[in-house]
Amino acid sequence: MELNFNTFFGLEKMLNDTPIIIVFWSFLGVIIMAFAFSIIAYIFRKTGISTYVIHSILWSLVLTLIVGSVTILILFVIGGLSGVKLAYIWLTVFLGYFVFSLLYNNSFKKLVSDYSQKLKK
To answer: Which ranges does the record mark as transmembrane (predicted)?
Structure first.
């Protein structure tokens, strides 16, 4: 069986017929997931459970919202790509940011804490 980039978990007909769905969910889906993971992180912090992976997911969602969703919007308007290819591009951008934020989570925390200390002064 070969890899085919024209299939996406059985949703290829819907995605190819209306690729605006990918653009819509690349913005709204990220905001909904960030809100949900923020609530989960709050609950975990209150119970004392480590939230290292959840913080990485939140950082990757923020980076994906800022850069990835704009990329999808530009590719949708200019590129004329199919909905399935847009979904694969968004998924690749999100996973790339997730790996990046897993590797540099401590640097992000230090950056935010240093910035908040400068704001207090």
So the answer is: 20-44, 56-81, 87-104
With 0-12 / 13-18 / 19 or more C-beta atoms within 10 angstroms meaning exposed / middle / buried, residue 101 is buried
Please write the tens of the pLDDT for every residue from 87-106.
788 888 888 988 988 888 88
Say how many domains are in the chain: 1
Radius of gyration of the CA atoms of the chain, in A:
17
pTM score of the predicted model: 0.73
Angle between helices 52-63 and 83-103 (to 10 degrees): 130
- Is residue 10 assigned to a domain? no
Q: Which of 65, 40, 62 is nearest to 52 (CA)?
A: 40
